[in-house]
Amino acid sequence: MEYCLIYLSTARELFDQDKISALLTHSHNKNRTLGITGILLYCNGSIIQVLEGEKQRVESLYQVISTDQRHHNLIRLYTGLIDQRTFPDWLMGYSTLTAKEFGHLHDMMPFIKNPILPGSDTDSVVISLLESFYKNNYRN
C-alpha cells in the first residue's frame, strides 16, 4: 500500500517565477531520491500539495516542508493509505492557476477525476479538497 498526504499552506509572500522554478528544481531532485510523487498547485499565495509514496518517506518529507520559512499555516487535509498513486509519473507536477482556472479543475486535469483513495465515492477526496481550495481562494 502507498501513502498519501495532502496539505494546504500560505506563502509568506507571493512567489515569482524564479522562486517557483527554484522550488520545483529542488522538489524534483529530492522526490526522485525519495521515490515520492505528487502535485503542487499555487493560487494567489495559497499552496496545496499532494505527496504520495512510502509512508515514512512522505512523513519525513512533510516534516522538512513544515519547517520551510517560505510558507506558514500548514494544515493537513488528508493522510491515509492508498491502493495506488494518483500521480505515479509526476515527481512534482505543478501549476500556477488563476482562480477561474482553478474552478475548472475537472476539465483541466481529467486524470485525477477518479483517484483510488479510501472512502471515495462519486467525487474523489483529491477533487473535493482541490475544489474547496479554489472556493476559499477565489478573488474577483
Secondary structure elements and pairings:
Blueprint: E1 2-11, H1 17-34, E2 37-43, E3 46-53, H2 55-66, E4 71-82, E5 93-96, H3 99-103, H4 105-108, H5 125-137
Parallel strand pairs: 2-5
Antiparallel strand pairs: 1-3, 1-4, 2-3
Pfam families: BLUF
GO molecular function, one term: FAD binding
Organism: Dyadobacter psychrotolerans
Radius of gyration: 14 Å
Sheet having the most strands: 5 strands, mixed
- The CATH architecture can be given as 2-Layer Sandwich
Counted by DSSP, the helix tally is: 5
**What percent strand?**
25-35%
Identify the overall geometry.
globular
Structural class, by secondary structure, is alpha+beta
Query: Could you report the average pLDDT, rounded to the nearest whole number?
Result: 76
Order of helices and strands: EHEEHEEHHH
**Poorly predicted runs:** 108-123
How are strands sequenced across the largest beta sheet? 4-1-3-2-5
Distance between the termini: 41 Å
Look up the CATH topology: Alpha-Beta Plaits
Number of domains: 1
Domain BLUF: 2-93
GO molecular function: blue light photoreceptor activity; FAD binding
Protein name: BLUF domain-containing protein
InterPro entries: Acylphosphatase-like_dom_sf, BLUF_domain
